[in-house]
Design a protein that fits this description.
about 300 residues, mainly alpha, 10 helices
Length: about 300
């Protein structure tokens, strides 16, 4: 019969303390000898963890997309600005900007730059949205749930990617209305759009890092735009790089926005540009900022 002091709990009996097994004393830097280590997850367990993480990210993506339906002003104001840029550069500045060797004239030169500029400004909303959720305490509720830590960031960036898809489609319609025509065919145009969206997704992770470090949404926006303006306006998005001062041309030619804009023009209208170089920039930014954002988020928790 079991004595009252030997009550079992499923792991080991409680009550009388067992004498330690003979052997070397435990090292202060590691676990005691004989302590069973947690087994490494099997391939099936890792696959299940990835599936749950993807499911969590999908749920939060849908949650962030619903915010646009409940507050449509967010989507309206994010589309008014690029439309104003198209009209401004097409009909106000377009006559004073000379481009050579571009089939279709300045409007064909302008629209790939507008696509990239639009998604760059749209990527700022990732940092602003994360900073706002952190300020309101919503992220603290997510941390208390049994969900993947990366799902919060993945859900936000994927939702902003879906919004950028809608905005690029809208800009395409506006571009056609003001005279833009692709000279390379439909599939080359779609390839250019996909390249722009990949670049926008990489930038979203970069601005996610800013949003995690900011105290509120206003601070995140104030931190983002000083970084964004030199990238978008000191580039080939609106004017040829050769028209800039010599000291600025070296920066403008080799910064990521110019590389992506030139590659997008190459796919859409056939002007010189390097698609592999644009892909390398996008993947490099994604490889740097995505792990950094996840690590910052875990430290913040």
């Amino acid at each position: 019969m079991t004595s009252p002091t030997q009550v079992t709990t499923g792991r080991r009996p409680l009550g009388r303390r067992q004498a330690p097994a003979p052997g070397p004393s435990p090292s202060p830097q590691g676990s005691a000898p004989g302590t069973p280590r947690r087994p490494r997850p099997t391939l099936a367990e890792r696959r299940e963890q990835l599936l749950w993480a993807a499911s969590d990210a999908g749920t939060l993506t849908w949650r962030n997309l619903l915010a646009y339906t409940r507050v449509p002003q967010l989507l309206v104001f994010s589309t008014i600005q690029p439309i104003m840029f198209v009209l401004l550069f097409r009909y106000v500045f377009g006559g004073a900007i000379a481009v050579q060797g571009v089939p279709g004239g300045y409007v064909a030169f302008l629209m790939p730059g507008i696509f990239v500029q639009t998604v760059c400004f749209g990527a700022v909303s990732t940092g602003v949205g994360l900073a706002e959720d952190l300020h309101k305490g919503l992220i603290e509720r997510f941390r208390s749930l049994p969900m993947a830590r990366s799902a919060v960031l993945a859900g936000r960036t994927l939702a902003d990617l879906c919004r950028n898809v809608f905005v690029v489609l809208l800009m395409t319609v506006v571009g056609v209305l003001v005279g833009f025509r692709t000279a390379q065919g439909f599939f080359h145009f779609i390839a250019g759009v996909l390249l722009v969206l990949l670049f926008s997704y990489a930038l979203s992770w970069g601005f996610a890092v800013i949003g995690i470090n900011a105290r509120n949404a206003e601070t995140a926006q104030a931190m983002a735009f000083p970084l964004l303006f030199p990238l978008t306006f000191a580039s080939s998005a609106f004017v040829p790089v050769r028209t800039m001062p010599g000291w600025m041309q070296a920066y403008a030619r080799n910064q990521p926005v110019t590389v992506v804009v030139d590659a997008c023009r190459h796919l859409m209208i056939g002007t010189p540009g390097s698609v592999p170089r644009a892909l390398a920039w996008s993947l490099a930014l994604l490889a740097v900022f995505a792990p950094l954002a996840v690590r910052k988020y875990r430290k913040a928790s």
